[in-house]
Amino acid sequence: MAIYMGLKDRLLREFEENTGLAPQLTAEFEIALESVCSFLQGKKLRSREVRRRWLFARVNWKFRTNREPIAQLYAASAAVGVTFNYHQKAGIQAAFDLRDKKAFGKVLKNKGVAEAARVQLLGLFAPVSESETRRILRSEIRNPSKLRKQKGERHIDQEIILSCVAAFVFSSAEEQVLHEYFDCAYDAAEYEKSFWLQLRRMRPKLYTRSRTLDLVHVSSEGTGIQYDQTRQTYLALVRASYANLDNYGHLAVWIDPIACQGRDVTWELASDIMLFAEKHDLVRLERGYFRPGRIKMETLDGVTGLDVDAAQFELANEGFTYRDCYVCPSSTKARSNDASLLLVFQKNKRDEVVVPCPACRSYDVQGNSYPSLGVRSWECCNPLCPERSKYNRGKRYSFKALLTQEAIDDERNEIPVESVRSWMRDVQVGRNISEALKMLVSHYTLYGDVVHVFGVDGAASDVLGRRVVHHTVELRMSVKETFFEDNPWFHRYIVARSLDSKAEPGEASGEVGKIRVLQGNAFQILATFPPDSFDAAVTSPPYYNAREYAQWKNIYCYLRDMFGVARQVQRVLRPGSFYLYNIFDCFDNERSVVHSAMGDKRLVLSSYTVDLFRRAGFVLLGNVAWDKGDIEGRRGFNAGNFSPYYQSPFNCWEHVLVFWKPDNDVGAAVEKVGQLPSVLRAQPVTKMVRGENTYGHTAPFPEAIPQLLVSLLPADATVLDPFGGSATTGRALMSHARSVVCVEQNEEYCRLAVAKCSDPKARGLRGAIKEE
Ligand SMILES: C[S@@+](CC[C@H](N)C(=O)[O-])C[C@H]1O[C@@H](n2cnc3c(N)ncnc32)[C@H](O)[C@@H]1O
Predict the structure, then answer these.
(1) Measured in angstroms, how far is the CA atom of residue 450 from the centroid of ligand 1?
(2) pLDDT at 385 over 70
């Protein structure tokens, strides 16, 4: 006892001498410290000098003390044409924190920086001195961020000091020695310096990279005569892929333009795959973290008449997370049905298996939260972990985030700049599946991984250092996937409602020439029209919870309303009519599992729509991708990081789904739809001018969208827009139709619509339209 107590006191004294700070140990900290010192007794320790250097390096890192000198270095190097990638930056950071000029010189040399520039940059190696580090540390202790002054009974100044003591103690010997102590499963013969190699060796169930990417090729060869048969085949592959892929691996589906019984089914299949991929795995919600009871009550409020037993709210629909859909037309002039699609999903299967701390390798960790659906995050509880935050919180990490980090750490994973740049948008003209495979391999897998490709002939090969193995696709005739028929998901919003519930149009209704604006809820207003009243319809519905006029308690309530209106429109359309439906797979929380930010994700609104419309009696004949030409938000921003998992394209396009109410002439309908463009380039309407909405509506579409109907309209047609907004449809089609009816429930928007239709100048407010 006396001897190892000696080590503890020695380390504490040394810490005090180095930093000028006197730690007050908590009981928990003291026990942990005594125990590790007992273990370290007799082990080879680092020299006093090396211990000191490591202490300062870790404090520098915790407090980012070298931020400024490094920023100056980067500015100066950029001025002489030298820029650094992530790995080089990490090396520079470590060299500054350790005050190791040689290591800095090595980074420059390995990068091949010319002699003159190297000398100049070496002259800029000016990390903070130890006394500066001490000053910063003291100042942080005296004046920590205001909110953090006190934490319960304990003072944040002591928390800061303890976090530094932990870093110091961890630096007293080589990392392996400390790992031996903290890792309860340590085995010297099996030890790996790399956290990942160690996991792979010791925890193969937790971490394998045996299958990190599946690419399924849907081609006419793998397509049956019947749509159902084709769908069965690919849904079975998706299900198998979800079962067999490593967690956090990706599934990509490349869909060639395909037809069944003379009808193009590319988009219908894409949409069914998206919905199935996300929802096919039924999982019982047992943990208190999820709120099935609350979700059930909210749904019952909005969806009257649902069958509670069939809806089974205690079961959650889990599966892949939908990420992106690239549209790949064969050329800029491609007609609709001449575009391939590339869908990308990630497997995020909820997994409660404990992940050790990557810094100290301790299993003394606790579940923290779920940063996103299916992803568990952890917090290290080891008071001696070297990576406790500066305010002494345990290291927080998720397995998914660590994996992404691993991708960065190995230079062999670096993606060629050209690949990142050329795949930046989700509209890609003239691509083929081989190019897609190359992109997928470098953007979504790591060097040495195994990739499985289905439906592309070829022998096993190496692509960018990844093994690619091939499998054939066989049409599935016998095994029936009943997801679309009996999954509880659909029972939560597909309810039969009487279509007779009428309401007369409100006071804000109006008529301007051929345009009628009817104020009221589309479901009830349309009930006042007899069947077969319209020859065509076009609309942009509310996107679930995206705007002030589009708020529902959860996705089920939204879908129930959209289903109701789809059925009404189906009733009032004449057989043989087309219905164009503009929708975007926007980001939000479905609130079908949780309400917290963890539930935020890209929604498959287009897939829900295709399914609802099919149930309402429509047939999907195609889709025009409206390329807005600009980007949505900051997604796709990778901060110059060229590593796998950091690349998401900018989502530049929205759907214009082309539905048809069947009559007896599917051939004629298919031919007409075949004339539509595959991609419509049109700028969104300019609404905001210097922060003010000068247009008056928050989500108008450009006239180019309703104008897509022109070639599909019979002479003298009557057109409907059930979610009319500012009556863009009316203005865009008034010279092509006998009359246009716009239904809009919001009074103010109805007035705006009438005003715009009456004012010829208002037409100038539409977005400038650029078509290729
Ligand atoms: C995306 S906006 C349509 C914008 C329109 N295309 C334009 O260019 O101005 C959707 C509109 O649907 C309206 N709306 C939402 N639910 C409705 C319902 N049940 N019946 C009628 N209108 C509805 C909203 O008030 C909103 O104005």
Answers:
(1) 48
(2) yes
